[in-house]
Design brief:
10 strands; single chain; Lipocalin; 2 domains; 10-stranded antiparallel β-barrel; alpha+beta
Length: 301
């Protein structure tokens, strides 16, 4: 029916416009008619929920005892965005401790929303090889809690004498669910750190275990079944290689990080791209060079 009305309308308009010699207007109207015929209705896209987003890698780049790192980042990923605050301190010349807080949420759209918070603490070993770079490896334990609000799509067929058969889609609230999980991770890193630039690669291994799920989704739709999949103590192993680049001054550096998620067994962000600022404090930054030592080193060179 829609096509018949479009053809009749086209014949009338073409005949009128040809008589008035308005070709430009004619082509514009033909384009609108084609769009009218081929795109009869707007379709609601069912949003896929993501149940894990890797936090930006925490790379300390320690070289000695009593160093402090403070950083803040904003992060983005497929269907997610968030922010993180990180802190680290070297308690000896080779041992450091870390703390991390990460909050993220869904990018708004059809099919539901979610928000999550993640905390972790870690401890690790670091070694400065000077001109040959630096190495560190940290392990830790984290807690994740996320709340999802679900919708499902209701589809109805509607018929009108002008438009003919059309499809009407409506988003219907389906309820919510709260997930809790803990994570164990190990992250080795290697790279180079200078006063002005850091370039470090990491290879994080994360074990995520869902410990409880409060399923308040209405039974009888596919969203309920989706939530139930996590109700039986599901565990997942993620491989998360990353690269960290920093540039600036020894006290303050701008940082850019990219982390990839190499596990396809769960709906999760395939990558995390983050940017932020890191503040560094170390005793060696406060040491003033002795003029005699500087002259001697210049003569030696």
């Amino acid at each position: 029916m829609r096509t018949i009305w479009a053809i009749l309308l086209s014949i009338v308009l073409i005949s009128v416009l040809l008589k008035k010699n308005k070709m430009k207007t004619l082509f514009q109207i033909i384009g609108l008619i084609i769009a009218f015929v081929h795109f009869p209705s707007c379709t609601i896209v069912d949003k896929q929920h993501y149940y894990y987003m890797q936090n930006p890698p925490q790379v300390t780049a320690f070289k000695e005892k009593n160093e402090l790192r403070l950083s803040g980042n904003v992060a983005g990923a497929e269907e997610n965005n968030g922010s993180t605050v990180q802190a680290a301190y070297s308690i000896t010349n080779h041992v450091g401790i870390t703390a991390n807080w990460f909050k993220y949420q869904a990018i708004s759209g059809n099919g539901g929303n979610w928000k999550a918070q993640y905390y972790d603490l870690g401890i690790g070993y670091f070694k400065d090889f000077q001109k040959k770079g630096l190495f560190e490896i940290y392990g830790g334990f984290g807690l994740l809690e996320q709340r999802h609000e679900y919708y499902y799509i209701k589809t109805d067929s509607v018929y009108s004498w002008w438009f003919g058969p059309t499809v009407n889609q409506t988003l219907i609230p389906a309820g919510s669910a709260t997930y809790r999980a803990h994570k164990i991770f190990v992250q080795p890193s290697y790279g180079y750190s200078f006063d002005a630039i850091d370039i470090i690669i990491s290879a994080k291994l994360s074990y995520l275990n869902f410990t409880s799920v409060d399923n308040n989704v209405t039974p009888g739709n596919y969203r309920y079944n989706e939530v139930q999949l996590f109700s039986y103590g599901k565990s997942y192993l993620f491989i998360e290689p990353a690269i960290t680049f920093r540039a600036g001054w020894k006290y303050v550096k701008f940082q850019l990080q990219y982390a990839y998620n190499g596990y396809p067994g769960i709906n999760c962000s395939p990558f995390t791209l983050s940017t932020g600022i890191q503040l560094s404090f170390a005793k060696r930054y406060l040491k003033k060079k002795n003029p005699a030592e500087s002259t001697s080193s210049e003569l030696t060179q």
